[in-house]
Design goal:
The chain has 156 residues and is mostly helical. The protein has one domain. It contains seven helices and no strands. α1 packs antiparallel against α4 and α1 packs parallel to α6. The chain is globular, with a radius of gyration of 15 Å.
Length: 156
């Protein structure tokens, strides 16, 4: 259990942990196909963030990393194959995090939201482009700032 999630139910904690695989699928599959380059980079990023990210979030990313490689294919199988329906369903699931984030420490919630967004940006930039230019597709660009997750802590 993540200490900062002490006030959450098991289901809410699971939803928080699933945010990273869901963000991976949302961004990697935004343009139709789930790009293995992006999913592989996302998995590496979860490992890096277990040790080399904001210390406050290391435990979160360790928990994510415990099942990440299994969870992504499970979610892909569970979610609709149609891109628009998949994006809608993932967006709805991520939007549910707003009420959960309101239950955790405000500063921790801000750190999580920031890490979700930087994670999405890293996944989007994982494939294509030259020196990072043009690597984010139009479809990914619409989603990388995760508009379904509140950005102002006062609104949590």
């Amino acid at each position: 259990m993540i200490a900062k999630f002490a006030g959450l139910t098991e289901a809410e904690s699971t939803q928080m942990i699933d945010a990273i695989p869901l963000i991976t699928i949302l961004i990697a599959g935004a343009d139709g196909d789930i790009d293995p380059t992006e999913t592989e980079w996302a998995e590496k990023l979860t490992k890096i963030r277990q040790y080399d990210y904001d210390n406050e979030l290391n435990d979160f990313y360790k928990k994510v990393g415990e099942r990440y490689s299994e969870r992504v294919p499970e979610l892909i199988e569970e979610l609709p194959g149609d891109v628009d329906r998949r994006k809608k369903m993932i967006s709805e699931r991520l939007e549910q995090l707003n009420s959960i984030l309101a239950k955790v420490d405000k500063e921790y919630a801000i750190s999580l939201i920031d890490s979700f967004k930087t994670f999405a940006h890293h996944v989007a930039k994982a494939s294509g482009g030259f020196l990072g230019f043009g690597s984010v597709s139009k479809e990914e660009h619409k989603l990388v700032d995760l508009p379904m997750i509140n950005t102002i802590a006062g609104e949590l």
